[in-house]
Amino acid sequence: MFDKVLTKIEKAVLITAFSVITLLVFANVISRYVLHASLSFSTELVTNLAVLMIMVGASLGIKYNTHPGFTVLRDNSKGLLHKVVVTLIVIVMLVFLAFLMWYGYETAMKQFASGRTTPALGMSQGLFTMAIPLGAALASIRSLQQLVLVWQGRDLDEEPDYREEA
Fold first, then answer.
1. The pTM is what?
2. N or C end of the chain, less CB within 10 A?
3. pLDDT tens across the length of the chain (166 residues)
4. b vs e for 110-125, b when ≥16 Cβ sit within 10 Å of the residue's Cβ?
C-alpha cells in the first residue's frame, strides 16, 4: 500500500513538473516571438523544476531498477554472494544519499535563514533547494525497498509492469 501511494505521488510530481516546464518554455518562446519580451521568471522556475524532476525521477529509477549503473558484480553473482553484493551497493548508495540529504538540507536552511530569494520570482531559494534532500530521502526509501526485494529472493531484472500503479 505504501509503495503504491508513494509511486502515485512520485509520478504526479513528475507529470506536473514536466507539464509546467513544457507550458512555460512554450509560453516563453511565443512571448519572445510575438511580444518581443521574455518571461523573466520562466527560466528560473524551469531550472528549479528540472532539479525536482531529476531527484524524484532518480527515486523512480531505483524502484524500477532502470537507473544506469555498473552491474557486472551484481549480475554475475548468485545466491548469498548476490545478496551480499546488493547489500554493499545499497549501503554505499545510502551513505551517498545521506550526505546529499544532509548537505541539501543544510544549504536550504542557510538560504531560509539568510532570506535569500530568487531574482525573478522573489521566492525563498531554500524552498527550491529542498528538492535535493526530498529526492535523496525518496531514493533512500527506494534503495531499501530494493534491498528487501533481493533478500526476499525477487529478481530485480524482471521487466516491470509500469501500468500496475496507474
1. 0.85
2. N
3. 888 999 999 999 999 999 999 999 999 999 989 988 888 889 899 999 999 999 999 999 999 888 777 678 787 888 899 899 989 999 999 999 999 999 999 999 999 999 999 988 899 999 999 999 999 999 999 999 999 999 998 866 554 555 555 4
4. ebeeeeeebeebeebb
